[in-house]
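Friendly challenge for the regulars: who can give me the C-alpha cells for this chain first? No prize, just bragging rights.
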Amino acid sequence: MRQTSTAPRNNKLKPSSNLIMNGSVRVRVIRTLLAIQNGQSLSSVLDPLLNSLHDGDKGFAHALLLTTLRQWHALARLLDTLADNPIDEVEVRTTIQVGLVQLLYLEVADHAAIHETVEAAKEIEFAHSTGLVNAILRKVAKNPSKFRKKCDKKHSLPNWLAYQLKQDWSEQYDELTQGLRQPAPMFLRVNSAVTSVEDYQQALDGAEIDADIVELTTGFKVANSSESATPTTLSTKGLRLHQSTAVNALPEFALGVASVQDMHAQLAAPIINKALMAKLSAENNSANDTDSDSDESNNNELHILDACAAPGGKLAHWLELISSKNESSLFHVKQDNAETSPETANIKVTAIDNEAPRIERIRENLQRLNLSQHDLQQADNSIALNIVCADATRWQHGKNKKAATNEPVFDAILLDSPCTATGVIRRHPDISILRTEEDIEQTALLQADILHNLWPQLKAGGYLLYVTCSILKQENVEQMQDFITHHNDAVAIEFTEDCSWGIEQAIGRQCLPIDSASGDGFYYALLHKTAE
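First reply, four minutes later:
Bragging rights claimed.
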C-alpha cells in the first residue's frame, strides 16, 4: 500500500538528516518534528534520529517524538490558550509542545523538562524565545493534571479530519478520535507452512514474551453462477503481543517463521485465496458436469495479481497459503479435477508497485521468509513469481510482448489500494500532520484510475479484493458504489453474519481501530466478475 504525499510546508528551518543528528536529545527530536512538518515522513526520519543517539537515549527520544506526534493537534490548541499573543514561529511552537509532552505525558521532572527545553530553544538559535518557553512551561508545571485533562478532553486531529470522521462515523466518533491518539499493539503473523500459531505462542512464552492468540472469522457468499451463491467461512489466527518487542528478540524471526503484520491486515490473503478456491471448485464442478475436455476450467494454469504490493506483507501471506500444500491450498483444490495433479498445477504470481525502492523492500521481505523465486523453485511447487516496477493506473500484463492482446488474464486480483492511511494513524501519527483535506479527493481519483485499469484484466468468474487502510468512506464504500455503478459485470460479494470483525457497509466491511481485536482501520470489499 502506497501512502499519498503532500506538499512541503514553508518552515523557516528545513532540517536535513545530518542536521537532525546534531545537538542534545531534545534538539534532535525538535528538528525531527520540524522535518515532518516540512513534508518528510516519520519512517524516513526516525532511523536517522535513533541511529544518531547512544543506546541509553533512544528509548526517551522515541517516546518523546511519538507522544508529541500523537498529541500534536491537542497540544497546539492548548498552547493557543496559554500564550497571551499568537505564536507564529513554527520552531518556537514545536519547542514548547515538546516541553508540554514531557510535563503532561512522560512525567519528566519539572526542573529537567523546563531547563532542557529552554536550552534546546537556545541551541536551535531561538534564544529570543526562552522567556516565553520558560513562562508557559512553568505555568503548566504548577498544575499538570488540570492541563492534561484539557488536552485529553477532545480529539488530537486536524479539524477537517475530525469533521469528516464525525460525518462518516457519528456513533463511533468519540471513541474513534480518542483511540487514534493511542499506541497500537504489535501483531505477528505466523507462517502456517512452517509452524502453527499455537506452537509459536509456546516459543514466545519460552522467550518470556507474552502474547494472546486472536482469531477472526470471515463469512461470505461465493458465487456459483449468476443466480446462486454458497456461504463459506474461514478462520484467521494471529498473535497480539502484550508489549511491543524488537524483532531480533522474536524466536526464529530471521528464519521467516513469523512476520510483523496488523491483525486486520492478516485478513486480506485468506479472503482472496478462499475466493479463488471457490472459483476453482465451481469450474471443476462445471467441467465434471459437462465432461468437456475443451472447457476453460481444464486449463492447468492460474494467474494471480497483487497490485500495489509493497512492502509485501500481504503478498508473502498469500504465497505462504499457496505453498503450504495442505488440504485448503490451491494445489489441493486443483487436484480435485482428475486431469490435474499438484505437480502440474502451475500458479503464476505477478506483483507490481510503482517505486523501485519499494520493490526492493518486497524482495528483502520475501528473501527473509524463504519465498523468493529461487526458494519457490527449490521447493518444486510450480509457483512462478514475477515482481514488476510499474504504475498500476497504466500497467497492462504482457504489454511489452509481441503477442500481447491485453485480454483478461488474471483469475484473482488483490488490490491493496493507495489511500490516505487514516486507519493507521496510531502507528504513523505523522499522517495527521502530513495529510490535507485535498488529499482525499486526489486519492479517490487515483483509486478509481487503478480500478478501471485492472478490472478489464480480470477473467470472467474471477475475484478482485479491494483493500485500504483508510477509515474514510469516500475512499472505501463510496468508491465501490461508484465503481459498480459504472461496471455492469461487477458484483459485490456479501459478507455474512459469520464475520467477527468490522462493520457491515452497503458494500464490504469496515474495520475501525477500536474493536476487540485492537487492529488498525481497514476496509474490505470483494468483487466478482460476471460474464457480460
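The first helix runs from residue 17 to 20. The first strand starts at residue 187 and ends at 190. Your move, everyone else.
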